Amino acid sequence: MNIEKKVLLTIFGATGDLAKRKLYPSLFGLFKKGILREHFAVIGTARRPWEHETLREVVLESIKDDVENEEFAEKFASHFYYQPHDVQDSEHYRTLKQLGDTLEERYQTEGNQVFYLAMSPNFFGTIALHLKSENIVTEHGYSRLIIEKPFGTDLETATELNEALSNTFTEEQIYRIDHYLGKEMIQNVSAIRFANIIFESIWNKDYIDNIQITFAEAIGVEDRGGYYDGSGALRDMVQNHILQVLSLLAMEPPKKFAEEEIRKEKIKAFQAIHKYTEDEALRYFIPGQYTAGEINNERFIGYREEPNVPEDSLTETFVAGAFFIDNERWDGVPFYIRTGKRLVEKGTRINVVFKTSPQLLTSEECGTNVEPNVLTIYIQPTEGFSLSLNGKEMGQDFNLSPVALSYRHDSEFLGNSPEAYEKLLHDTLDGNSSNFSHWEEVKRSWELIDVIKKAWTNHHTELYTYPARTMGPMESYELLERNGHEWIWQPEKWYIERKQLRCDF
Ligand SMILES: NC(=O)c1ccc[n+]([C@@H]2O[C@H](COP(=O)([O-])OP(=O)(O)OC[C@H]3O[C@@H](n4cnc5c(N)ncnc54)[C@H](OP(=O)(O)O)[C@@H]3O)[C@@H](O)[C@H]2O)c1
Question: Which end of the chain is more exposed for a tag (fewer CB within 10 A), N or C?
Answer without folding.
Answer: N
